[in-house]
Each structure stands twice: as structure tokens, then as C-alpha cells.
Amino acid sequence: MTKPLSLSQRGQIASRSAMRVDLEVYAEAIENLYHPTKNPEGALILNMAENNLSWPLLREKIETVALENGIPNWVSNYTSALGAASFREALAGFLSKFLCHCPISPDHLACSAGATPVIELTSWILADAGDVAVFPAPSYPVYTQDIGNKAAVERFDLVIQNTTNDRPTLNSKHLDETLTNIESQGKKFRMLILTSPDNPTGYIYSFEQLIEISDWCIEQEVHLIVNEIYGLSLIDTNHPELRADYQTEVDFVSFAQIMQDRQSDYLHLWYSLSKDLGSSGFRLGLVHSLNESFIKAYNNLNAPHMVSNYTQWTFQEVLSDHDFMADYIRKNQAALTESYVLVVKYLRAANVPYVPSRGSLFVWIDLSAFLKDDSVQAETDLWLEIYQKAKLLITPANGFGHQNRGHYRLVYTAISKTGLEEAMSRLSDFIKNKR
Ligand SMILES: Cc1ncc(COP(=O)(O)O)c(C=O)c1O
Questions:
Q1: pLDDT for 123-179, tens place per residue?
Q2: What is the pTM of this model?
Q3: For 311, which of 66, 88, 161, 195 is 20 to 30 Å away at the CA?
Q4: Is the CB–ligand 1 distance for residue 122 below 6 Å?
Q5: Whose alpha carbon is nearest atom 4 of ligand 1?
Q6: Cα–Cα distance between 278 and 230 in angstroms, integer?
Q7: Distance CA 248, CA 299 (A)
Q8: CA dist 296 to 23, 93, 109, 270, Å?
Q9: Which domains does the chain have, with CATH numbers?
């Protein structure tokens, strides 16, 4: 074992800071995976935000691309650090047609190996060390590392008291209060980051809400970034089994439409193919911005984060087949809704409260009734107990930045349909025993 003191000070800190708290348990669980006949008592993984529901469709398409096309010469050379021109062209066409429903210029796109480096580099370019990025809570825990590890930007979790089972409505009054709070600490409110559909709640920000928030940010010179990484992973809220869960109808409308209208240097959008296309292993993410200096800075810094040209070329072919993409998105959303319905039926039967999701790969469930007390330790203990007794690995509660103890994220898209039935049946039994 090497001595940590051989590292720089920041290297020493990194050697002690795991990216996620559940990685050790995850490593154990994957050594003992559930199989209906070979390992029926095995572990079921519901903590990683992966979508495997439609991989067979994408795999077939990728295999066809590889079989039917010669690899172009540019693939073996260096390309633009923003992404090859032909790839960005295909991306822009895909985004315009399927996600954004407005024209997107390839000149306003910059690509890196997944959303993770996109978030890291965006933070580095837009904020200085010690500046603050605000996230309405609860929010994706790993944002903390993405904005903090290199850019040294601080995370501020904006907790709004919740009155409904939906997520509270963020408005400019909350932002005014947050600005005063951050400035009173002598710090700068630099970025506001929204995820829509949201991780973990599946909440979607309405168009009107996004306009109000955008105008506040433009006026205050705060960068607003909307992460639409789950933008095509939409649940059919009109499904007969689900309709009664939603008090209002909210259509997903891409933030790109507001960006196009406002033409501001303060509005940006993140996207990645990791979730909607279930292709997290290919590592393809992007930022869309009309801020020319931002794109120039990105170009100058992105070399370490570039996507391999072979991946760019493959996805250029996949994304520009719009008939395939339309079919894929439709089938993927149907599969997503089907799995979601299965999960909520079990939750309702077991009397477990949940936030009705409108999109994403998650259900945000409330197991607070089973906590020993209202502490973080009790949350961790319950999470581990669920793993040890039911062999179900859900996402631990740590790091989401909210204050209601006992809420957990359950990913329902990473395992097979049989696995999901088994998982929900085990969770129901666990709860029955607890009551
Ligand atoms: C909101 C959000 N942003 C970013 C990421 C990371 O995505 P990628 O695999 O493209 O780096 C995730 C993954 O879970 C996510 O949920």
C-alpha cells in the first residue's frame, strides 16, 4: 500500500473521499446478483441511475451501423475539442426535433465524455472558487463533487417547505431570500441549477415557472443551468392507473425554447445520452449555450474530457436516423411507464407514500415511518437493514440536501421486469414485517 503522504495535499483529500457512499455495498451486491433460478436469494440493484429497458433496441441499431458502414478516416485523428463538426450537426438535429422542439445550432453545442465533465467544466468556467451554486432540495448528491472537486464551487441546498406531495414551487421570492442569505455570508450566488425532470423526485418545472426563474437570473446576473438529462424519459401521466396521482397537468417544455427567446449569456442547458438512451457507458454529454465566450473557454479547456471519435461517429449515425429515434423514444417511454406502474402499485398496496413522478428513472419514497428516530444515522441504519434483510440496494438518503428524514430513491429501470417484481415483493414483505 502506498503512503498517502506521497500525494499532493489535494491528492490526499481525494484518496479519502469516495465519489458515493454506497460504492462498497454496491461492490458486494454485484458479486451476489439475483437470478430467478440460479440465485433467487441474490441482491437486486436499485441504486444506480441506469436505464437498461431499451438497450436491446439500441444495441441492434449500433450493430447495424457497425456492419453497414465503413469507418470514416476522421475517426482515427484529433477533432475539434467541442466535438466533431459532423457529430455536433447530428446532435443539433436530434435535439431540435426530439428534445427542444426549436432550432439548435451546432455552434452552440460543446460535448464532453458524459454530463459529469460537462457539469465540472461549466462550473469551472462560470464560477470562481468559493462561489455558490444553488440547488432546490432534494437534489442529485453527486452535484456536490462535480462542482466542488476541481472548480471548488460550494453547494447551497435551497430547502422550501413542502405542502403538497409534489415538489414545492420555486419562485423569485425564494431566490430573493437565497440571494440575501448568500450575500450576507460574503459569498457570491453564481449559478442556479435545476434538473428537469428532476433527480430524485421526477418533478417537471413548468414553462411559466422557468420563464419567471430565467428573468430573475438574467436580472441578477446569476447563471441558470437546466439539466435536461431525463428530458425524454417521461412517464405517461394519463395512464389509467396513474392519472389520479396528479393534481395538475404539466407538459415538459425544453428550456432551450426560453434560451432562444431571451438570447442571454446567463442561460445554459445540460444534456447527456446516458439516461434517455440508456448509454451511460458510452460517455456522451453536452452543454448548449448562446454565450460565445463560454463556448470559446470550453473549447480551450475540454481536451481532457473529449468523447472518443469512434463513439461520436457511431452516435452520429444513430441520432441522425430520425425514424429509429422516434420509435426508440416511444417504446422507451412505454417501457418506463410500465415499470413505474408496477412499482407504484406495490407502494400503494404497502401504504408507502411516494412523490408521483412525471419523468426520470426514479421513485422518491417515504419510509420515515420505519426510522428509529429522526436522525441521519437512523436513515443510514434503515438503508443498510433493507440491504441486509431483503438484499435490496436502494440509493442511500445521504447528500440530497433536504431535511425530511427517511426518504429514499428507488431506481426501477436498471433491472429486468422479473427482477423488479421480485424487488417490490421483497420490499412489501420487509415493510409488512416492520409494521
Ligand atoms: C442529474 C444528473 N446529472 C448528471 C448525471 C451524470 O451523468 P453522466 O453519466 O452522463 O455523466 C446524472 C447521473 O445519474 C444525473 O442524475
A1: 999 999 999 999 999 999 999 999 999 999 999 999 986 644 555 689 999 999 999
A2: 0.96
A3: 195
A4: no
A5: 115
A6: 11
A7: 42
A8: 36, 22, 11, 17
A9: 11-56+326-434 (3.90.1150.10), 74-320 (3.40.640.10)
